[in-house]
Fold this protein.
Amino acid sequence: MPVELSERELRDAIAVVGEWNRKGAQAAKSAFEWMGWEGEEPLCLRRYDVQLFVWYVLPRKYLVGLDDKEAVAAALAKTLERLGGQAASYAEVCRAPETQRLLRAWEAEDPAAPRTFRKLLDDPGIEPPDTDQLAWGSVMGFEEARVREQVATALEEAIESGSLAPGASGVREALTGFISMKGKLDLEVTRVLEVDDLALVIGVWSFDGTGPDGTPVQLAAKNADVLRRQADGTWRFVIDNPWGTD
């Protein structure tokens, strides 16, 4: 289940870890920054974020040896445990045997590592899959990326609460009510203000459909979102504000 962590909670947990392992605290801080923490704002952390970090970002983006990568995963696990609550449950991802095996596979340039990574990411069901009704683009624009982020968060919430079965079949079932409205969603980006790795995306969207009782369903708003460019060139939402501002 996604959890919002305040700046104070994150800094306190990192500081406690730093009392016994200063290098580990620095590693944990770096991991949270990779997962979207700006340092002065809260962080909405998902299990998906932790999985993506330890299964791909850590082994592929950190230019250090295997021992150091394993130490980063261990420090992140310790910090997550210190945060407590739902965040503590994410520590199991860092310590899982499959995580250790995948780190070693990436380090050895094992050709099977990418397939193993994809399988690990797909199995829990929180990676938004393609379905008969919806296929994600290989290169996404701002609006598609925003919707995908929302779907990933909703999937994690639904699966961990037990209200949705993992996998494409479960997603299809969850989308049935929305799809049954036979509506049309229009998205238009009207302005993008980009500075370094941050972008303010302003747009308008509308949805027209029909409810189960035949009543027209119409929604419309202006969105104002803030995105940050990731190391792989994709964009992730820092502030997701579909209702925008006037």
